[in-house]
Write a structure and sequence with these properties.
The protein is of the alpha+beta class. The chain has 27 helices and 31 strands.
Length: about 800
């Protein structure tokens, strides 16, 4: 559905903490091997039999299939929330615990002082307090659902004969799950999926103040030549800036270079085709959400059945609902929308009172809140959080000016579990209405129904800005700029029954004009991936589930075709005579299959040369920013950098040439030379340099990151995989499709579902990694659970 996630920036802190604990963990694992194995087996979930539990009104039966995918049957939806919580608590509790602790800023209580930094960043948002407020103001039906789920989680934990293995290794016990912890799970998703938009604005802040307006507009143009909107026009590329734009630029010092470097942020694909394009007349949906990959996977498959309802899809451990899936009438899926849901506010501080800041109503003192961070081992740290009428103070900019963050996640009305109503939706229009008012990180939702109708809209809430576009930080002190609450759900754009019978989203710009002004630009990406999906859909006269999977696995390198041709034209006889080592590069890229396949040498070489030019050119053009802030990450601010990059290498304006090169030809050839030199330095023969050498995926458990010796038991084997960012099959070593789904509602038995890893988070479970092979190989696996292999019945206590 997003900076790394739970396996990302804050997890690096966890890794450090676990590294500190690594030696005693290894000693425990070595000296207490037999005892440890016994404890591990004792912490396996119960698969069969009957349990009497308090908290349900009627019996819940749980049938598991050969992959451990459960079908839960009951009389009441609240009882099924309890049953799902029971399963999550037994199979995924450590994962859930990390999510709530990450959002609440409580990781150090589990890992020690090494994660104080992550906790400080999280505490400023006050999500623990907000979660309690959201839960308290939720409708009674939602509170009952979350309470039943929490009761089920704790019952599942209590039913284990030993705590989950991670707590055994950390020498701690799990804390009970509370109903408001499910709200914290939502906040963890806000952080995962919307942090990138905040980073974009942070990056644009420095670009906008340190570059000339012409150069700024050129680098941040809204279009890059690959636009694939659903509505509106393709945006023209920005004009090249004049010579004065970089007149005073000095070449930056040489930076590090990695031919395989990439900029990964949470994304996704989804699309739908209407019934006019299917043999059965019902609509067809496909979705694959791209996220950081780890063990266990972020999603947990499940099917829920209660009177009048049959819902199948992916659940999020920590929450009691089916997040993506199909209910027999409607199927739905998400992509990260990259609309603008946050703003950085520049604060004007009173010249004689540093505790006061200017608001439209005059000077106001900061609100102060004391947070106490507690670490394993007893260490404590006090943190004072300053807040404004717009949001918490987050930092000072490079000039020392304090900044606050306005973010929809801080609005309790923007967070909730309204999405649960999708489980009962009966039409596309009804599903879109539910989505517009849902309290989740704003997502593109695509819907398909049995009547053949399809639709797109945004699920989640948006700020209503006035006086500015939200692209860069600005002061709100005089009242001419700011937010006027949240956009009414009835104003959110939607598209139903497009005339071409096809819809697609891939984190790209989807609209223009007034609608785009309403949504804002939160760092939407190039339309290259979306355009390829669109074109594949238009190649189909009649669409099937198998066609959808084929598009999801498409590793076509159309994005780099023109780059390969550019390098071939560049490497003429004169260039080869000047440096014979370039000959191997040219010969290898002549063998171009046009795919990011594991065996392709040409793909990796062309990609590497482009990567060098991207880094080299952007480092030069943004050099004034790096002079102020050596850690400046220009790629954070420029998610559509292909547009200006291609304009530079094709138009080759002399006034924008980095003076360290004698000509544009020399600049471009440096990209080739750098790739050749890079592999020479690491002792690699160009003949052996394949994309698969780099794109090696291994799903790892967080514990093995700190204690590698445990990796042989905790991690899955390495697999070389095809795919990259600018194609439907998005794949990088630690990032890719967290699931794949293709289904026609009402015909779920024909659908497909892939998931990396497996259902269970327990390394001794047969379902720890048994879904992975089909995900790696792209082999179709059933959307619905298969024949029952185990049955567990939860009986109500009388």
């Amino acid at each position: 559905m997003a900076k790394r996630s739970l396996a990302g920036r804050w997890l690096r802190g966890i890794g450090l903490a676990l590294l500190i604990l690594g030696l005693p963990l290894l000693i425990v694992a070595t000296l207490g091997g037999f005892w440890l194995r016994g404890q591990l087996r004792a912490s396996l979930p119960q698969l069969s039999g009957e349990l009497t539990v308090a908290g349900i009104e009627a019996a819940v039966t749980i049938d598991r299939d050969q992959l451990g995918v459960p079908t839960l049957r009951g009389t009441h939806r609240v009882d099924l929330a309890y049953g799902l919580g029971f399963l999550h608590g037994q199979e995924r509790f450590f994962q859930m615990d990390l999510q709530r602790r990450q959002a609440a800023g409580e990781l150090s209580e589990l890992f020690g002082p090494a994660t104080f930094g992550a906790d400080r960043r999280a505490r400023r948002h006050g999500f623990r307090q907000l979660a309690a407020q959201v839960f308290g103001q939720s409708p009674g039906s939602t509170r009952r659902l979350l309470t039943a789920y929490a009761d089920g989680v704790n019952a599942g934990l209590d039913a284990l004969d030993a705590s989950p293995v991670e707590y055994l290794l950390l020498r701690q016990g799990p804390e009970p799950w509370r109903p408001e912890d499910s709200v914290l799970t939502l906040y963890a998703m806000f952080e995962l999926l919307q942090r990138f938009g905040i980073q974009v604005e942070e990056g644009l802040s420095l670009l906008s103040t340190e570059l000339t307006p012409d150069l700024y507009q050129f680098l941040t143009a809204s279009g890059d030549g690959w636009d694939a909107p659903l509505l509106g026009q393709v945006t023209a590329a920005a004009a090249l800036p004049p010579a004065t734009a970089v007149a005073a630029h000095r070449p930056p010092p040489p930076g590090s270079f990695d031919t395989a470097a990439a900029h990964a942020v949470p994304g996704s694909n989804n699309w739908a085709v209407a019934g006019a394009l299917t043999a059965h007349g019902g609509a067809l949906l496909a979705t694959d959400m791209h996220l950081p990959l780890s063990l266990p996977n972020i999603w947990y498959r499940a099917r829920l059945e209660w009177p009048g309802h049959e819902v199948t899809g992916g659940t999020l451990p920590g929450a009691p609902l089916v997040v993506i899936g199909s209910n027999g009438h409607v199927a739905w899926g998400f992509t990260n929308s990259r609309v603008d849901t946050s703003d950085i506010v520049l604060l004007e501080i009173h010249p004689e009172d540093p505790d006061s800041y200017l608001t439209p109503d005059g000077w106001r003192r900061f609100d102060r809140r004391l947070e106490v961070l507690r670490a394993k081992g007893g260490k404590e740290e006090s943190l004072e959080v300053l807040s404004t009428v717009w949001g918490p103070v987050i930092d000072d900019d490079v000039h020392g000016h304090p900044r606050a963050l306005a973010w929809v996640a801080h609005h309790p009305d923007a967070v909730g579990f309204e999405l649960a109503a999708l489980e009962s939706a009966r039409s596309t229009s009804e599903a879109l209405d539910i989505a517009n008012g849902a309290g989740l990180p704003t997502q593109n939702i695509v819907v398909a129904d049995t009547a053949g109708q399809i639709g797109w809209t945004l699920a989640g809430r948006l700020p209503r800005r006035y006086g500015f576009d939200g692209q860069t930080p600005t002061s709100w002190a005089n009242g001419s700029r700011g937010w006027d609450g949240l956009v009414d759900a009835r104003e959110i754009p939607r598209l139903v029954d497009p005339v071409d019978h096809r819809l697609w989203t891939a984190n790209n710009r989807l609209v223009d004009g007034d609608w785009l002004a309403l949504l804002g630009d939160g760092g939407y990406v190039s339309g290259a991936r979306a355009g390829l999906i669109r074109d594949r859909l238009f190649e189909l006269e009649t669409a099937t589930v198998e066609d959808m999977l084929r598009i999801q696995l498409d590793d076509s390198a159309r994005f780099l075709d023109r780059w390969r041709n550019l390098f071939l034209d560049l490497l003429d006889e004169g260039a080869l005579a000047e440096n014979p080592a370039r000959g191997d590069f040219r010969r290898l890229i002549e063998d171009w299959e046009g795919r990011a396949s594991v065996s392709s040498r040409a793909y990796r070489l062309v990609r590497g040369a482009r990567q060098f030019l991207l880094q080299d050119l952007l480092q030069f053009l943004t050099a004034p920013c790096a002079e102020l802030d050596p850690s400046y990450a220009y790629l954070n601010a420029l998610p559509r950098s292909e547009g200006p990059l291609w304009a530079l290498v094709t138009e080759r304006p002399e006034h924008l040439l980095n003076p360290k090169y004698s000509s544009w030809e020399a600049q471009l050839l440096a990209g080739v030379d750098q790739v050749v030199a890079y592999y020479g330095q690491i002792g690699a023969d160009l003949e052996a340099v394949t994309w698969g050498n780099f794109n090696r995926v291994q799903l790892r458990h967080p514990i093995s990151l700190a204690v590698p010796q445990l990796g042989r038991w905790l991690d899955l084997p390495v697999a070389e995989l095809p795919g990259d960012f600018n194609m439907p099959r998005v794949q990088q070593p630690g990032y890719g499709a967290s699931q794949r789904m293709a289904v026609a509602p009402g015909r779920e038995e024909e659908g497909i579902f892939h998931m990396p890893g497996g259902q269970s988070g327990h390394p001794l479970s047969p379902h720890y990694g048994d879904s992975n092979r089909a995900w790696v190989e792209g082999t179709p696996t059933s959307f619905l659970p298969g024949p029952t292999t185990h049955t567990l019945t939860l009986q109500p206590a009388r």
